[in-house]
TrEMBL record:
Keyword Transferase: yes
Keywords annotated in UniProt: Methyltransferase, Transferase
Organism: Amycolatopsis suaedae
Domain of life: Bacteria
Single GO MF annotation: methyltransferase activity
Location of the Methyltransferase type domain: 43-137
Bilayer-spanning residue ranges: none
InterPro entries hit by this protein: Methyltransf_12, SAM-dependent_MTases_sf
The protein, known as: Methyltransferase
Length: 283
């Protein structure tokens, strides 16, 4: 499973960097509801390269914060990030995976944060059970970020091809991910939402809230690069599934010589909505 992630470091890191303002809102919301004191432990399970872990370290300043991920490249990058930020011994990265019994050594945790991981796993309910076993009895909180809305980057139909182009692009991408991840046995697209899955795992659902990543035009060069990279990847993944008309529209978005291209559009923005769900052990 981790081999799948090896080539994704650059993408996951760019996503994590651009999403930071949204992740910070979610972390602040969590810290306002549940602020364990000095000496508490926060785990970021499936941390990737540790972008959100840094935010957690800042929003939970009295806590030991541990980034856990099975992909060695990611934990190495996370450790380098923490050193670059001068976060000291309070924040560290460790190998570990949901499904590996050694994860239990990190219990008890006051907060278990797990973003965009559980839906990739073959049995999300078993994964939630395993995460809940890491929580401090009675008081620990599990924060799972999953789902939201498809992101948008340009007004209307993106000004290329038919106005419905953007909807077909999203639908094709969504089908592609469900099919690809199903090959690994993942349960993506199962159609049951997280409060129900929490109940199946013996967890009590406390709250859900959706946060926006709202980066309006004009965007910075870094954000524009992130969007261009994202569409380049979309073209690589699903270009051959599009109609010739939609493929031509996508090519226009990526052609730097075209005034309608992402690289040239002054109206480029990022609007993304991600939902965080909080749960605790049902006692
Ligand atoms: C989409 S990335 C999310 C990274 C980060 N949480 C974020 O929100 O940016 C999914 C991460 O899950 C990790 N992962 C894969 N299998 C896992 C498992 N069984 N337990 C924990 N993490 C896993 C991958 O290595 C990857 O870093």
């Amino acid at each position: 499973m981790t081999a799948i992630w090896d080539d994704e470091l650059a993408t996951v890191e760019r996503d994590g960097t651009v999403s930071e303002p949204m992740v910070r809102q979610a972390a602040r919301w969590l810290a306002a509801r549940h602020a364990p004191g000095t000496g508490s432990r926060v785990l970021d399970v499936g941390s990737g390269p540790g972008c959100a872990t840094v935010v957690l370290a800042e929003e939970f300043p009295g806590s030991e914060v541990v980034a856990v991920d099975p992909t060695e490249k990611f934990t190495a990058r996370a450790a380098a990030r923490f050193a670059e930020r001068g976060l000291g011994e309070r924040v560290r990265a460790e190998p570990g995976a949901i499904g590996d019994p050694s994860l239990a050594a990190l219990a008890p945790a006051d907060v278990v944060w797990c973003a965009h991981v559980v839906h990739h796993l073959p049995d999300p309910v078993a994964a939630l059970r395993e995460l809940s076993a890491l929580l401090a009895p009675a008081s620990g909180v599990l924060a799972v970020a999953e789902g939201g809305l498809p992101s948008r980057f340009l007004p209307g139909g993106y000004g290329v091809g038919l106005p419905s182009f953007v909807n077909r692009l999203e639908a094709t991408l969504s089908d592609y991910f469900v099919e690809t991840w199903s090959l690994t046995g993942a349960a993506v697209g199962g159609g049951r939402d997280w409060p129900l899955l929490f109940a199946d795992a013996g967890l009590r659902h406390h709250a859900s809230r959706t946060f926006l990543l709202d980066l309006p035009a004009p965007v910075s060069d870094d954000v524009r690069r992130h969007v261009v990279d994202r569409f380049t990847r979309i073209q690589r993944l699903i270009g051959d599934r599009l109609t010739s008309q939609d493929a031509a529209a996508l090519a226009r978005l990526l052609d730097p010589a075209d005034s309608a291209a992402l690289a040239n559009r002054p109206d480029l923005f990022v609007l993304q909505a991600t939902t965080w769900h909080l749960a605790g052990v049902d006692i």
